[in-house]
Amino acid sequence: MLTRKELKQRGKHSLKKHYLIFTAICLISAFLASEFRGSLNFSTLRNYEEFIDNPVFEEWRGFLLNIIQQISPGSILVTMSASVNSLAVTEKGGIVLLILTGTVAMFAFWVFIQNTFGVILRRIFLESHTYESVPISRVLFLLKIKKWMKAAWIMLVKSVFQLLWSLTIIGGIIKHYSYFLVPYITAENPDMTARQAVTLSRKMMKGHKWECFVFELSFLGWEILGILTLGVFNILYTNPYKTAAFTEYFVQLRQESKKAKIPGTELLNDIYLYEKADALLLMEKYVDILDIMETPSPQEPELPGIRGFFARNFGILLFWGKQEKRYEQLQAQHVRNAELYEALKGTVYPTRLHPIPEESKRNQIESLNYMRQYSIWSLILIFLGLSFFGWLWEVTFHLLLSGEFANQGFLNGPWIPIYGSASVLILTLLYRLRKNPGMEFLASIILCGFLEYMTSLVLETISGGIKWWDYSEYFLNLNGRVCAEGLLVFGAGGIIVVYVLAPLADNLLHAADQKLLKLFTLVLLVLFCVDAAYSPFHPNTETGITETSFSIPIRKGLS
User: Which of 5, 155, 397, 420 has its CA 20 to 30 A from that of 531?
Assistant: First the structure.
């Protein structure tokens, strides 16, 4: 077994090779409140004081509430408890129904996204342990093998067990280490049952719990440095470094457990997650890709004139005709073949050698070409759809915590356009950076920072000095208009939009009836434009709109 120092050295080496992707994936985890949630709470104490002002927490303040927040399902318990209290204080039937619907939606989001993302995160780190690069598309590996639901169930069972043990305090600490390896085990083989994963973790951690505790304790200095920088250092270094080091720790425990022939370790059967496949085997599995890459293909005509300029530089298709469809198909093939060719060369994980076949499992997921170009109609609907999602998110969060419906945003309609406009600008202005997720992430932060600052300035000017958000009390803010916390959230959100949400939405839009789709788009666009023209003279200023959100900075304005 390697020493702690050696494990950390390996972790640092891995972090050095994959710094941007590690930092981005850990930040997305914090953004989703999956793990590292404290790293984004630069104003943690002030936010929690507002959050637990709800009477339901009067008896829980202090140490016990802190424990509940720290355990895996703790955050969802706090939110749901606030929702129950909101139900008790409201007498409006419609509001009750909305609160119940929002509570169910929040719970589903926690089960299938927040609590499961830890498996995705560890898969990324495990593949980085062996390979030079990890395609951003690997965040969808559970969908490609149709095991997302199974992984979500495993993590749910693990969280419930841990929660029940946490009620005994000491038992919760012990079981934290007993179940420590469940996300890693699931990342390697998500086809296990929950009982198999939990049991195998307990067996592998037998005799190692104290060792794991001491290993965690050895990062105390880095954690203190993170506290002194109000979480900034944790985001930029400690979180990815610690995760990389513990990935090396799992690799060592897995190796020892297999040597000791611990029952259940035969289920850890993803050989090529830890060693590269033989060149001849890769040649056999990827011979079709070798033929494609080595055979000169006939030169395909580019889109001419202004259409080609916008397609190549901004990822925008001005029209959606036969030539554009053919162009888009070729681009998707090139991206897919390039990724498979990297697997053939041994620089990325060979998905065709995965114990659970990925090929032809999920055609729609396979077609999520993030280098695609978007038609004008798609961009308009993505803008309106994400603007509505932003409004729905803020309204739901406020409703669950306060029991009151508040129409969030500057506009009077159900949309907060900064969500949509930021997404569309990232998709278009940063099109050429999509091949490099790290650069896309950094550029998204800069672009959204400029957009948010100017939005705040313009809104304050046209509304007679009303401040629609104020981050003066947040760490690293600029004139109260932008803050580091919000910008990092935008960066993480931009990655999710570019590589997952927008391609998925575009696939669905192309599959719909195009005449009805265009009619629907025009109706929504007209309604939005009318609202945008009306609101500067009659802005939405009802109670709760211009107050700071309970959550991490989430926009309350017009882009």
Answer: 397
Let me know if 217 is exposed, middle or buried by CB neighbors in 10 A (0-12, 13-18, 19+): exposed
Residues with Cβ < 8 Å from 124, sequence gap 6 or more? 21, 22, 25, 134, 138, 139
Q: What is the dihedral of CA 220, 225, 227, 229, to 10 degrees?
A: -170
Dihedral over Cα of 117, 122, 127, 133: its sign: positive
Give, in order, the Cα–Cα distances in Å from 6 to each of 3, 415, 530.
5, 52, 63
Q: Is 274 exposed, middle or buried (0-12, 13-18, 19+ CB in 10 A)?
A: middle
Angle at 409 between CA 408 and CA 415, to 5 degrees: 90
Neighbours of 102 (CB within 10 A): 20
Distance CA 103, CA 262 (A): 42
Closest CA to 139 of 501, 490, 486, 386: 501
Residues contacting 75, CB < 8 A, separation 6+ = 33, 37, 69, 110, 114
Q: How many CA atoms lie within 13 A of 135 on its CB side?
A: 25
- Phi, psi torsion values for 80, nearest 5 degrees: -70, -35
Phi first, then psi, for residue 240 (nearest 5°) are -65, -35
3-state SS, residue 276? coil
DSSP 303: P
Cα distance between residue 32 and residue 154, in whole Å: 19
pTM (2 decimals)?
Answer: 0.79
What is the mean pLDDT, run by run of 10 residues, along the chain of 559 residues? 92 94 88 72 44 43 40 51 53 62 80 92 96 89 91 95 87 92 97 96 96 95 88 90 97 96 95 95 90 67 83 88 81 83 94 80 60 91 92 77 70 87 94 87 90 85 74 80 82 88 89 90 94 82 47 38
365 and 144 Cβ atoms separated by less than 8 Å: yes
Residue 223: phi and psi, rounded to 5, are -65, -40
Give the whole-angstrom CA distance, residue 457 versus residue 462: 9
Q: Which helix (H) or strand (E) holds 33?
A: none
List beta partners, residue 477. Answer: 483
Per the CB < 8 A criterion, the answer to whether 247 and 39 are in contact is no
**Residues in a beta bridge with 478:** 482
CA torsion 79-80-81-82 (nearest 10°) is: 50
CB 529 within 8 A of CB 80: no
* Structure tokens belonging to residue 380: 């308009």
Query: d(Cα 104, Cα 88) in Å, to the nearest integer?
Result: 17
How many angstroms separate the first and last alpha carbons of the chain? 54
